[in-house]
Amino acid sequence: MPAEIVIASTAPAIGQRSIPRPALGESPLVKAALIGVALVFLLLFLVIPLVAVFYEALHQGFGPYFDALVEPDAVAAMELTLLAAAVAVPLNLVFGVAASWCIAKFEFRGKSLLITLIDLPFSVSPVISGMVFVLLFGAQSWIGPWLRAHDIQIIFALPGIVMATVFVTFPFVARELIPLMQEQGVDEEEAARVLGASGWQTFTRVTLPNIRWGVLYGVLLCNARAMGEFGAVSVVSGHIRGETNTMPLHVEILYNEYNFVAAFAVASLLALLALVTLVVKSLLEWRYADQIKATRR
Amino acid sequence: MAEIASTTLTGGFRKPSILPGFGITLGFTVAYLSLVVLIPLAGLALRASGLGFGGLWAVMSEPRVIGAFKVTFLTALAAALINTVFGLLVAWVLVRYEFPGRRVIDALVDLPFALPTAVAGIALSALYANNGWIGQFLPFRVAFTPLGIVVALTFIGLPFVVRTVQPVLQDTEPEVEEAAACLGANRLQIFTRVVFPAIMPALLTGFTLAFARGVGEYGSVIFIAGNLPGVSEIVPLLIIIKLEQFDYAGATAIATMMLVASFCLLLAINLLQHWTRARHAG
Question: Which of A121, A281, B91, B149 is surrounded by the most beta carbons within 10 Å?
Answer without folding.
Answer: B149
